[in-house]
Amino acid sequence: MDICTIGTGYVGLVTGTCFAEMGHNVWCVDIDEEKIKKLCNGVIPIYEPGLEEMVKRNKEEGRLRFTTSLSEAMENSLFLFIAVGTPPKEDGSADLTHVIGVAREIGKNINNYKIIINKSTVPVKTGLKVRQVIYEELLLRERTDIEFDVVSNPEFLKEGAAIEDFLRPDRIVIGTDNVRTGELMKELYSPFLRNGHQVLIMNISSAELTKYAANSMLATRISFINEISRICDASGADIEQVRLGIGSDSRIGMPFLYAGIGYGGSCFPKDVQALIRTANELGVPTEILNSVEMVNIAQKGLLVEMVVNKYGKDLSGYTFAIWGLAFKPNTDDMREAPSLEIINGLVEKGAKINAHDPIAISVARELLGEHGITYYENNYSALEGVEALLLLTEWNNYRRPDFHRMLRVMKTPTIFDGRNQYDPKKMKQMGFEYYCIGRNGNN
Ligand code: NAD
Q1: What's the number of domains the chain is made of?
Q2: Does the beta carbon of 267 lie inside 6 Å of ligand 1?
Q3: What is the pTM for the complete model shown?
Q4: What are the tens digits of pLDDT across the range 323-335?
Q5: For residues 236 and 63, what is the distance between their CA atoms, to the nearest angstrom?
Q6: Interface predicted TM-score (ipTM)
Q7: At 363, which CATH number?
Q8: Which of 234, 267, 297 is the last residue of a domain?
Q9: Binding-site residues, please?
């Protein structure tokens, strides 16, 4: 089948590449000329494990092509995936400028039947807007004879495991009001459905809302466990033990119950906010979602509060090491990463920062600059002479570090562990002053 993905970012590039891997012919389109030039030269603009080899293989075998020309890419494609960004507007609602812009371009260029698929995360009723915009363009061209369908097909992949998630999805959600289109979508996805994974066909609004509900549910679990972790710290309970205690209940389960420094990334914060806005517009109160967001905002500030409690409000003269800048391991994505707020909070108070991340340093440097921050390629070098280490991302190589080496190079052996990576008792025995999340009563 011939496919075109419009928007070649984390979602569009992975989608296009995985479809090509299954033998489909794919055009990936982006308005970012630099990005397309890189991809044409075999340079992958993002870090995603396994992606580079897969892009290279499919490009060499002629199934995966890159262009800035939508008209060229869509000419022979039946399926047009819209995978552009939907960032938050100032009021928290989803900015649909890119999605609507793409719809307009499709309307200008469409010459025969197409299935237009919204893979971007978009609020309920966006499918209708996309249809309307395309129709307006067809009216202008006096080509209302051209037929098309608009489908919602939200994406659930996780950055850092995007290929695996796309190739082996838990489920595929398809929102359509046309039975035949639903069947064509099922056929398109059939190579990914070998292990009894489900295709859930539903109406468009339900599919659109499913994506927001899923991300909000996951964000709710994170804020919930973070709130419980505060009760643990205040009471002497240990969040790790409580987590095991509740997670082993099959009604609750273990995933997404890790206390930490709050959720970040390009999806959870914006999707919770956008769902609140949608609900408010519909007149539906959102007390749970409001609290999820408030708890998260507070949690992102927790580590700076802990540092201030120990060293005071004026941090000039202190240098802190940061391990982990990306919002989670195995990605270079820094959008809404808690590290941004934490580092800015410390620098504002006069601290100097030695920052390390295995992958995200160049992205971080663009966002954080150099003021007060030195970036290190080696995580132990970042520790030399520092007052304390703040661990912000649970990259594998921070899990079992050489603690003896750390004790030797740090000025004072103090760790603020935002991801509960180490055992508080062992850390104390080794001579560290160790602060973590929801396990401090046990220290
Ligand atoms: P991204 O910012 O990485 O990529 C978006 C791309 O679209 C950019 O390369 C941009 O240049 C391009 N673009 C913008 N306007 C365009 C246009 N008119 N024509 C062609 N290209 C255009 O975004 P992303 O992280 O891939 O997210 C895309 C959508 O998928 C968002 O709605 C997001 O919420 C959703 N989503 C993201 C993830 C994730 O983990 N990143 C997961 C699931 C869903």
Answers
A1: 3
A2: yes
A3: 0.96
A4: 999 999 999 999 9
A5: 58
A6: 0.99
A7: 3.40.50.720
A8: 297
A9: 30, 35, 86, 121, 156-159, 211, 256-260, 264, 270, 328, 335
